[in-house]
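re: that complex we talked abt at group meeting.

here r the seqs, copy pasted straight from the sheet so there may be weird spacing, ignore it
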Amino acid sequence: MTSKERVQKAARMQIPDRVPFMCQLSIGHYFLNSQVDNTDLWFTSRGYADALVEMAKKYHFDGILVNLPGRDPEYSDYVHKIETYEDKHRVFWKNGNYTDLPHDDNPHYYQEDGSRFFPTFQEIDPEELFYIEPWDLTDITYPYTWGFEDSPRSQGDFFPEYHLDTLQLVLKKAGDTLAVHSEVFSPWSQFMELLNYENALMGILDDPEKCKACLDRLTDGAITLARKQAKLEVDAVLISSAFAGGGLISKSHYEEFALPYERRLIQEFKQDFEIPIYTHTCGAIGDRLDLMLATGTDGIDTLDPPPIGTVELQDAVQQLKGKVFIKGNIDPVNTLLQESVDVIREDAERRLQIAKPGGGYILSTACSVAPHTPPDNIHTLYETVEEHGYY
Amino acid sequence: MTEQLFEQLAQSVIDGDDNESKDLTNKLLGENIPAKQILNDGLMKGMDVVGRRFRDNEIFVPEVLVSARAMKKAMDVLKPELINSGDKMSGVVMLGTVEGDIHDIGKNLVSILLQGAGFDIIDLGVSVSKQTFIDKIEEHHPDILGLTAMLTTTMHNMEPIITEIQKSEFSVKTIIGGAPINTAFANEIGADAFGKNASDAVNKVKALMGDLEQETVS
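got the structure back, here u go
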């Protein structure tokens, strides 16, 4: 059975030959461990595609999540100069702004004065919204423009031609043997990123109807993007909904501001596509697994365990097995980054014992693998699944 | 009548009604109520309730943020009066996210709850270099320094700051927090305390203030 088939079966709650193994690596981990030059990795579609495939093969992942958009192939036309410091590159753009690329962490785009731009809740107009890509080269803009384009695009032509380049390159390089998953941001995540979190969180109390109008529009964009990705024949689509856990919002606010929009995204997607569409929500989600199920999702990712979250795997299995596939639950910081290989092995073995029976389980870290995680630690997970993951 | 106004002020903070909190603060000042009393019997009473409800998961971050906004609007009016009257806050806490890290929501929650507990806050913002922390400690002489990091890549920037403080003459106590942080890490780098969440951080800060006062006496 190929890796691709293995993940496909698990994502459909069938029993493959063994439990698939597939982790999301942080950008910093790619920077530190991939052979791809960091500026190529961040600024070019080919750079990131090469890094994704290289590292998936290095760690024997059964699948790859393509979690950055494609890049403008003409991006270098906008570069004024690049300076290298001890701990980062700084790319100065011709518009006066700059991007810092730490050697081991997520890059960010800054205004000339060192601030990051975010619109206010008061100034945003729901009618102007469609999709917010937080990892675009120029971070958040409003009204939304891609990269260094001068003006917003129409909804009919919203996503630039290059937007799916990274995904297409990964599919071409590895899609025959590895599962390839694409990513869209949930409406709630987009809204939070647009307003830099605090203003979005206050907005749901200050003017809930305006928030809902915004979320509705952002759902339209997410549906459009998910459809475009599915047409490329990805194996699954991930809805990144990081900020919907109990560390930020109550269960009732989840029900009001996250669930209806994720549900519409999933339902409309499923009208045309049969591939799995699943959800990634970080942190304290133990109290709302039932609501996540109500979105119609095919799978739940991360399942952060204590202390970073509130999900015990045995509880998740009890609530979710047979209804959705499950992926995650290995603590990427307290276990995978900080513990010995013996402890990691024991931890992975325990999770396999709990979640492997009956299929529908993918061995994975909860959230992304931390930048400085020793590669040997990740290899230990693969060794464990090879030893104990077969059915 | 004054008691009623205090209750209304507390409620305005609980409800996150920032216009009401400002108006009531002005009204109480207009009746020559001492600023410290307005803070203690009105604003802090309200934030006490907010802090407790947040700790007990009765309310979540949105509610705390709007309450903080109401508190801040009242404090904008009250602070000059507090300074003029020479009244002392519970202590001075300096907060910052360490260099390379742009996350601040946890730090901001701690700031809100500490203000509600009567502490004066100096917030240095995000991605603060070690030298800036040291310079600002020298300038402001806080009682407590709170460091936060959300990322495994930036948490190690905490240790050099704490080491520098330990080598110095500063009497400031340190507390650290953030998603990748735990007690073992705090002990390893010599921090005086670790706040596992915003509410816990407030309790630990109060305990550190007690330690500082004892050290001063002895």
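couple things i noticed - Chain A touches chain B at residues 28, 87, 102, 104-105, 108, 116, 197-198, 201-202, 204-206, 246-250, 253, 307-308, 333-334, 337, 370-372 (CB under 8 Å). Chain A has a mean pLDDT of 96.
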